[in-house]
């Protein structure tokens, strides 16, 4: 069986934005969060069993009070990335520079909002100035393909190449086709691995703020993690069959 190469872990379900499309159903008064010792134990045990990368999201990871401790404990053991809305990033830059994550991606949820695009461009530059590789996630709606194309042009003009842009289709509604997403990107692009078809990957696991495990962040088929170990993670995935987003619950 291939190793579990990459984990996506939602540190908290707290987020000031409370986006209606959020698969984690994050909200400003969210109370679910991982204990830092559990995150660290699981991440290190998985690293010992071949996991190479862990992505911290949410909710908003910058609203998780133990982010610095988690980053410090996993430094040098895993490739650590963070996905953030960017709303708190300006004040967190110093702490992030000290923790030195390998990558921070700023999400653009509304590509038609010029101010949001400009802020993401500025924040990527600020991350790079502090030695942190920065990038952007662009959320693409079928109803907003022209806005996505314009945002992509602005990002490239600012020196943010396609190797640092991830184009993500809106789900479960207003979802562009793969061809429409490619047209919005304007050339070779990075996206979710499921873009070409829904299927679980033996090399990936998604862990929610409530401690459940799934083969995908969007599926409604999840199983609780019984222990903070690679073995328990594998066991939970075995009883949580993938249900395509938008499909009936298991």
Question: What characteristics describe this protein?
Answer:
31% helix, 9 strands, single chain, nine-stranded mixed sheet, 250 residues, TIM Barrel, alpha/beta
Report on the architecture of this protein:
The chain is α/β, with parallel strands linked by helices and 250 residues long. It has one domain (6-238): TIM Barrel (Alpha-Beta Barrel). The protein is 31% helix and 18% strand. The chain is built from seven helices and nine strands. The protein has helices spanning 36-48, 67-74, 89-99, 114-129, 145-157, 178-185, 230-238; strands at residues 6-10, 53-57, 79-84, 103-108, 133-140, 165-169, 204-207, 212-214, 223-224. The protein has a nine-stranded mixed sheet. Helix 1 packs parallel to helix 2 and helix 5 (145-157) packs parallel to helix 6. The radius of gyration is 17 Å and the shape is globular. The two termini are 25 Å apart. The model has no long low-confidence stretch (mean pLDDT 91).
């Amino acid at each position: 069986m291939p190793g579990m190469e990459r984990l996506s872990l939602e540190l908290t379900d707290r987020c000031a934005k409370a986006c209606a499309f959020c698969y984690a159903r994050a909200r400003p008064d969210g109370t679910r969060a991982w204990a830092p010792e559990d995150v660290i134990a699981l991440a290190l045990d998985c690293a010992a069993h071949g996991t190479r990368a862990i992505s911290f999201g949410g909710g908003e990871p910058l609203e998780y009070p133990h982010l610095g401790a988690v980053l410090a404990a996993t430094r040098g053991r895993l490739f650590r990335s963070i996905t953030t809305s960017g709303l708190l990033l300006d004040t967190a830059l110093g702490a992030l520079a000290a923790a030195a994550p390998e990558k921070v991606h700023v999400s653009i949820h509304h590509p038609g909002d010029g101010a949001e695009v400009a802020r993401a461009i500025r924040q990527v530059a600020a991350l790079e100035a502090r030695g942190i590789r920065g990038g952007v996630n662009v959320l693409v709606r079928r109803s907003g393909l022209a806005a996505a194309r314009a945002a992509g042009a602005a990002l490239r003009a600012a020196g943010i190449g396609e190797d640092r842009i991830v184009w993500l289709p809106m789900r479960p509604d207003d979802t562009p086709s793969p061809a429409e997403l490619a047209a919005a990107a304007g050339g070779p692009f990075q996206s979710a691995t499921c873009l070409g078809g829904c299927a679980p990957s033996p090399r990936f696991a998604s862990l929610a703020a409530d401690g459940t495990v799934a083969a995908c962040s969007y599926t409604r088929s999840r199983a609780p993690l019984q222990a903070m170990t690679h073995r328990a993670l594998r066991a939970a995935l075995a009883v949580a069959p993938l249900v395509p987003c938008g499909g009936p619950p298991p």
